[in-house]
Amino acid sequence: MNTLNEVSNVLTKIREKNPLVHCITNHVTINDCANILLAYGASPAMCEAYDEVFDFVKISNALYINLGTLNKEQETSVILAAESAKIHSIPVILDPVACAAIPRKIDVINRIFQVGKVDIIKGNTGEINFLAGKNADVKGVDSLDGSEGALDSCITLAKKYNCTVAASGEEDFITDGKNSAIIQNNTKMLTKVTGAGCMLGALCGAAAGAFENKFIATVAAILSMNIAGEEAFKEAKAPGSFRVKLIDSIYELTEEKLRKGGKIIWK
């Protein structure tokens, strides 16, 4: 049985290891992703140049690929980086932003899986439902899908790609195809700041770079984000101040806060 003790220990491992997380992410939230990684105890590198990514991946502890503002160089870079990660056994976190709205994204995702191996897929419920072959209700990069059927979609993808899959929403669903968790911590204020999902993907990279069990690592990263969001909302009731306090709350996280505050249903 998975426990909050095991999940909370991931935070200590991150701060002990200070994992180098190679991020190829969208340009809207690149600064927030870097800062939240630093606050979490990781070391961010926002390296996306095609001529550099192959070599940089092999010195990293994790690769985070976010398809949010995918330009042509990023497209070639993420494919090359994914190939390098497979060669050098570096864990990969894929954030399939807007895959349900923009068909080109699926072509890139398929290419990533052809040349590499993804360890964690982290998306919103609409993106995960779409990748699982279901109808998805989306508005651009945002999901309008509810929680119903989200865990089944995660399990379908986890088994298809032999990886951990997480669908974020009012509840968060995580599975590796055998073990599953539903996280019920949340605050709606996370939907009022740009890039909360991108920052969450970056945290998954930090956890995956420091902890061998990718299912537990993903649970830890998502629980960290949600508890930090709840903590931030206690002091910041508007989006601007909340965004700043969110990063502060990530920095102020402790194992005790995760253990005492975590609301997880294990399946």
Tell me about this structure.
The protein is an alpha/beta fold. The protein has one domain (4-266): 3-Layer(aba) Sandwich (UDP-N-acetylmuramoyl-L-alanine:D-glutamate ligase), CATH 3.40.1190.20. It contains eleven helices and eleven strands. The longest helix has 22 residues, at 214-235. Its EC number is 2.7.1.50. Keywords: ATP-binding, Kinase, Magnesium, Metal-binding, Nucleotide-binding, Thiamine biosynthesis, Transferase. It comes from Clostridium algifaecis.
Mean pLDDT: 93
Number of helices: 11
- N-to-C order of helices and strands: HEHEHEHEHEHEEHEEEHHHHE
Overall, the morphology is globular
End-to-end Cα distance: 9 Å
Q: Looking at CATH, which topology would you report? A: UDP-N-acetylmuramoyl-L-alanine:D-glutamate ligase
Query: From the helix content, strand content and strand pairing, which structural class follows?
Result: alpha/beta
Over all CA atoms, what is the radius of gyration? 17 Å
Lateral arrangement of strands in the main beta sheet? 2-1-3-4-5-8-9-10-11
CATH homologous superfamily identity = Ribokinase
How many domains, as an integer? 1
Task: Write out key terms for the chains shown.
alpha/beta; UDP-N-acetylmuramoyl-L-alanine:D-glutamate ligase; nine-stranded mixed sheet; two-stranded antiparallel ribbon; 11 helices; 52% helix; globular
